[in-house]
Write a structure and sequence with these properties.
The complex is a heterodimer of chains A (about 280) and B (about 300).
Chain A (H helix, E strand, L loop, with lengths): L10 H32 L4 H4 L14 H9 L2 H32 L5 H13 L2 H14 L6 H5 L6 H14 L2 H9 L4 H12 L1 H16 L3 H6 L8 H8 L7 H21 L1 H12 L3
Chain B lengths: L7 H28 L17 H6 L3 H34 L4 H15 L2 H12 L5 H8 L11 H29 L3 H9 L4 H29 L3 H7 L13 H11 L3 H31 L1
Helix pairs in contact in B: 1-12, 3-7, 3-9, 4-7, 5-10, 7-9, 7-10, 8-9, 9-12, 11-12
The chains are: A mainly alpha (about 280), B mainly alpha (about 300).
């Protein structure tokens, strides 16, 4: 690395500095992961071992008892299924609305479009929690409590998604390409579906991961809209399950670990997309 | 061949999305502003206009004042922890760039940010647990008596700050790493030729260049911390039958006013105050940005 060509210090000193940095980073990494590691390991412990000090990382007598009883006591798979459906539908809606609106606002200059874009971005500043209650009252009066449409209403659009796609369309899709297709007699719908959409795959993938994550971790909205044990999302079901009177740490950890595994798996598979999406959201200035 | 007007496609494509935005974003936001001026109660039929009475009542509502105090303390504590720690970690990881293990470090620090909130909060709840938790056992080793972390009003705030900082650091590190990669190598070279150590080069070359990014991450972290709810909900809910200490945060107080006390107008006034805080923070960020780019 470029570190090693410092004129006044030897190679040995650099190796020591590198070792110190690696040690610090190793300790920090372990500390960051330790709570999650303990959670998963507690899921497989027997009640006496849960009380043992120091806490073990690999259980001495691993047991499936916790997991079996949690699955008997709660519709955990149902909640996971609910969350999957919710997150998938929300992602589909956010990706398609962002693709269309981002393209139209980026490539067509009609009067009023700047105002529309400004309004869309301005609503992004307002946290969801601020307007959640009127939205809830609307959903309630429409009779949509405890239904999929009612739950989805809060998560159909994402202003940042429109912003991201518009930015991409303006910088990376040349006007000449679209003009050429028009000269060849292609319709606008065909141009969008066949030319523009395939070119947007990269940013749409990043957006999809962000949208899925947002819905998967949603809490306050599903908590108030879905009030029936069968319709809970995973986060809500789990949060309410852990308020129970007689539930012990082993069962709680088992439920939490079962909930953790799909998301940890998904986001480690999608890490590159996720990082791109989050980094883009951080650099929108 | 029949030619369609040029505006037809964009207008037809945008219209449904615009309608959606009006129904689920613009209208509820305006409705929040309107409701905050009404005595809007779910159970009573009369819903009179009361002007700023809700806001005036809020200024002497002990529960609301507690909520806004707690939320502010929590939000600023999270930023005070997350930004320096995140910056230091990003600098260390950046200095190991190119080695395979730097990816491992990055992933481990980032993972807490992406795992689901509730299971993560449950993991920490066990750590903080007064009877079974490893934290008490750990401080016991150095002679500090066991604390009831989640029941004590001050300690439970601290627990919430630790949990939220643990989750927020990954985001800060990620954004700082992107920023650090954008610092031109030539600047470091120049600093080194002037005899600066790596630490000095970081302090006097990278940090000033990263200032806008640091500012941005601070504001984003502050705003999202003002909206915390799930973490408080999980940490504060009953532990093994014993009621935990409820850390009253803004969103919790708001939901309680509208769903437990049925005072929707009053809750809307709280939402307006939350919005005002967010707008002030965003505005401050833009102003600082402008001042910097002019200087």
């Amino acid at each position: 690395m470029s570190e090693s060509d410092h004129p006044s210090s030897g190679v040995g000193q650099h190796r020591v500095v590198g070792l110190v940095i690696d040690t610090i980073l190793c300790v920090v990494s372990v500390m960051m992961l330790l709570p999650l590691v303990f959670l998963i390991s507690n899921a497989f412990k027997t009640p006496p071992e849960l009380l043992a000090w120091p806490p073990t990382i690999v259980p001495h007598q691993p047991t499936l008892e916790n997991i079996v009883s949690v699955l008997r006591e709660t519709p955990l798979f149902r909640w996971i299924g609910n969350s999957l459906i919710f997150a998938t539908l929300s992602t589909a809606s956010i990706v398609s609305t962002s693709a269309i609106a981002g393209y139209v606002l980026g490539k067509f200059d009609l009067p009023g479009f700047t105002v529309i874009f400004t309004v869309i971005i301005a609503t992004a500043v307002v946290p969801f929690e601020v307007y959640m209650i009127p939205l809830y009252l609307n959903v309630q009066s429409a009779g949509l409590l405890n239904t999929w449409p009612g739950l989805l209403v809060g998560y159909l659009v994402m202003s940042f998604g429109i912003f991201l796609i518009r930015q991409y369309v303006m910088t990376s899709i040349p006007d000449e390409l679209l003009e050429a297709a028009r000269v060849d007699g292609a319709g606008e719908g065909w141009i969008f579906l066949r030319i523009v959409l395939p070119l947007m795959r990269g940013p749409l993938g990043a957006l999809a991961v962000l949208a899925f994550f947002q819905a998967w971790t949603a809490f306050a909205w599903p908590l108030v809209v879905m009030t029936n044990k069968e319709t809970y999302t995973l986060e809500v079901g789990l949060a309410l399950f852990q308020t129970g009177f007689t539930v012990d740490i082993g069962h709680l950890s088992a439920a939490a670990a079962l909930a953790l595994v799909p998301s940890a798996l998904f986001f480690s598979l999608m890490r590159r997309n996720f990082v791109r999406g989050v980094a883009a959201s951080g650099l929108k200035e | 061949m029949r030619t369609k007007p040029k505006w037809l496609f964009p207008v037809l494509a945008l219209l449904p999305i615009l309608g959606l935005y009006c129904c689920i974003r613009v209208y509820p936001i305006i409705e929040t502003l309107r409701l905050s001026l009404y005595q809007w109660n779910i159970i009573s039929r009369r819903k009179p206009f009361v002007g700023f009475a809700n806001f005036i009542e809020l200024t002497s509502d002990p529960l609301f004042l507690e909520a806004i105090f707690n939320t502010t303390v929590i939000a600023f504590s999270i930023v005070v922890i997350t930004i320096p720690v995140g910056l230091a970690l990003a600098a260390l990881i950046n200095s190991r760039q190119g080695l395979r293990r730097s990816g491992v470090y990055e992933a481990s620090v980032f993972l807490p940010h992406v795992v689901s909130l509730v299971p993560a909060a449950m993991a920490w709840k066990w750590i903080f647990d007064a009877r079974l938790g490893p934290l008490n056992a750990l401080i016991g080793l150095v002679g500090i008596p066991a604390q009831s972390w989640l029941f004590d009003p001050v300690l439970s705030l601290l627990c919430l700050v630790i949990l939220c900082s643990w989750q927020a650091i990954g985001y800060a590190v990620l954004i700082f790493l992107v920023g650090l990669k954008n610092v031109p190598d030539a600047l470091y070279e120049a600093a080194r030729l002037d005899g600066a150590s790596s630490l000095q080069a970081f302090r006097y070359v990278a940090v000033p260049l990263l200032k806008p990014v640091i500012l941005y991450v601070s504001v984003i972290t502050l705003i999202s911390s003002y909206n915390i709810y799930a973490q408080a909900f999980v940490l504060a809910s009953d532990v093994q039958g014993a009621p935990g200490h409820l850390v009253r945060v803004l969103v919790l107080d708001m939901l309680e006013n509208s769903f437990r006390n049925y005072r929707v107008g009053y809750a809307a006034a709280e939402a307006v105050i939350l919005l005002a805080i967010v707008l002030i923070l965003t505005g401050a960020q833009f102003r600082l940005f402008r001042d910097r780019s002019r200087a």
